[in-house]
């Protein structure tokens, strides 16, 4: 039962998340030889004010 958590900045559309879920599920089923029904994905959307890169908050760039 593969479980994958994707953490990303908020702002992606439902269609983008659907496409990503499809691609990741396909890769896992190919690689591990499991049924897609056992693959679980969690999308954690983070506010850009809670993410910093190179010492700068993403909300301020």
Which of globular, elongated, flat, extended, rod-shaped describes the shape? Answer: elongated
Number of strands: 4
Helix content: 25-40%
N-to-C series of helices and strands? EHEEE
Look at the structure and give the CATH class: Alpha Beta
Cross-sheet strand order for the largest sheet? 1-2
First-residue to last-residue Cα separation? 39 Å
- Radius of gyration (CA) equals 15 Å
CATH-defined superfamily: Macrophage Migration Inhibitory Factor
Mean pLDDT: 97
Largest sheet: 2 strands, parallel
Overall CATH architecture: 2-Layer Sandwich
By helix and strand content, what is the structural category? alpha+beta
Measured by DSSP, the beta-strand proportion falls in: 25-35%
The CATH topology is Macrophage Migration Inhibitory Factor
Low-confidence segments, ≥5 residues, pLDDT <50? none
Q: How many DSSP H or I helices? A: 1
Tally of discrete structural domains = 1
Give a description of the structure:
The chain has 61 residues and is of the alpha+beta class. It has one domain: Macrophage Migration Inhibitory Factor (2-Layer Sandwich). Helices cover 31% and strands 30% of the residues. It has 1 helix and 4 strands, in the order E-H-E-E-E. It has one helix at 14-32, and strands at residues 3-9, 40-46, 52-53, 56-57. The protein has a two-stranded parallel ribbon. The protein has a two-stranded antiparallel ribbon with strand order 3-4. It is elongated and about 45 Å long. The mean pLDDT is 97. This is 4-oxalocrotonate tautomerase. Belongs to the 4-oxalocrotonate tautomerase family. Pfam families: Tautomerase. It comes from Methanoculleus marisnigri. Keywords: Isomerase.
């Amino acid at each position: 039962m593969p479980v994958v958590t994707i953490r990303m900045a908020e702002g992606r559309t439902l269609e983008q998340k659907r496409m990503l879920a499809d691609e990741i599920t396909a890769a896992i089923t190919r690689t591990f030889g499991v049924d897609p029904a056992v693959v679980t994905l969690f999308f954690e959307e983070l506010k850009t004010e809670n993410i910093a890169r190179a010492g700068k908050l993403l909300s301020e760039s």
